[in-house]
TrEMBL record, chains A, B:
Composition bias type Low complexity, residue spans: 14-24
Entries under Gene3D superfamilies matching the protein: Homeodomain-like, Tetracycline Repressor, domain 2
Ranges for region Disordered: 1-24
Keyword Transcription: yes
PANTHER family the UniProt entry points to: HTH-TYPE TRANSCRIPTIONAL REGULATOR RUTR, TETR-FAMILY TRANSCRIPTIONAL REGULATOR
Start and end residues of each HTH tetR-type domain: 27-87
Key words of the record: DNA-binding, Transcription, Transcription regulation
Record-given protein name: TetR/AcrR family transcriptional regulator
DNA-binding region of this protein: 50-69
Amino acid sequence: MTSAAGPRPDDGGARTAPARRPGGRSALVRARVLDAVRAQLLEHGYDELTVDAVAARAGVHRTTVYRRWRDVGGLLADVLDAAGGDDWRPRDTGSLEGDLTALNREVHQALTERPSITAALIAASFRSAEAAEALRRFWDDRYARCEAVVDRAVRRGEIPAATDARRLLVAATAPLYHHLVLLRTPPDPGLPGHAARAAALAASAGAFAEP
Amino acid sequence: MTSAAGPRPDDGGARTAPARRPGGRSALVRARVLDAVRAQLLEHGYDELTVDAVAARAGVHRTTVYRRWRDVGGLLADVLDAAGGDDWRPRDTGSLEGDLTALNREVHQALTERPSITAALIAASFRSAEAAEALRRFWDDRYARCEAVVDRAVRRGEIPAATDARRLLVAATAPLYHHLVLLRTPPDPGLPGHAARAAALAASAGAFAEP
DNA sequence: TCCTTAAAGCGACATCAGTTGCGTTAAGAT
DNA sequence: ATCTTAACGCAACTGATGTCGCTTTAAGGA
């Protein structure tokens, strides 16, 4: 799947090509709407991110947005998918703890900056199945890329070869999400480092080794 | 603060007692409404938990609910506060990893049962400041009680005496919330044990020791 | 250039969350 | 027993969200 541009009424079979038109007005409208979503989010935050506001800002009719994106969650999902195809890679600092700390600092930044698109998407994921799916895809992609961090640590001999990369990565990052998203404790600049160090220690002790 | 029964228009000074009436009809209405919230949540889940449905079910007028609880978040906050004064204590299994595993199993249960009041409250906390506050209070209380687990482990000599209890407890439980609430991965019965073991290992390696 | 039709525009409508003003009931004090 | 007034009942209203049927525009193929 590439860029999700809204509901796609399935061709049904292999007849004559059903003539999609993703190149002209549709694409222009989509670009204007997604730009409006980003701008509205940056200027007024998630609370004022309504379909009406986005449509007005994009100079597009309300029903157009409702038909193509269904709701705010659908809009955010499309924004996220559009931004997901970037070339992000985890930093290489030379040590597992360093890599995890750098990663955690990025997560910390993404969750505490105001306004935070990530935080908005998390909030939206509790109201919209589309947003929830997009977020799941996004995180799945990010964690997959982060497995490189674990591979490097294994190659350096820091941790066992049979280490479960996902479990290690979740152990390192989960405390950040827990504090900043769920517990809503005031941001602690030491948190990224602490969580990274704890996960790295557990990993080198074989806590994430497969049976 | 005891049981929050709605807005309390501050006496302002020490005049004659302003004559609250928390013992009669008010209390009856509150009990009926909170019962209705629990019943509605159990039968139809969070999505159908509206102020109107609760009011109808409680045999009370809509405006009464709006005035006393403001919104669904306020209702859930009151339910949680009412249920927060229980006598819950973490189990004592004889080892840190055992205690954390038992704890994690309870968290896992609370988050995966359908319907889950905890999950409903988390969802509500993104829409209602009152629900967010109630949830914060609830978790703060629970984590405070769980510090007993860490104290016991210190006394047994499993972990350093200077261990930061909160950080250890968050490290143990956060992966559960991350998987079940945010990542929405399918429930893994091994997860409570895995996360507990990793946190216990990190703790014994001194990962949560104070400087 | 012309034709077909997907997608956008438009306004009317439906629904629901939440508010307001006012009358009614009954808790608790005298 | 009587009085005061907090809390509840009631209905009408506002505003935002989301839908529907129809018309208009223009993309892309002939």
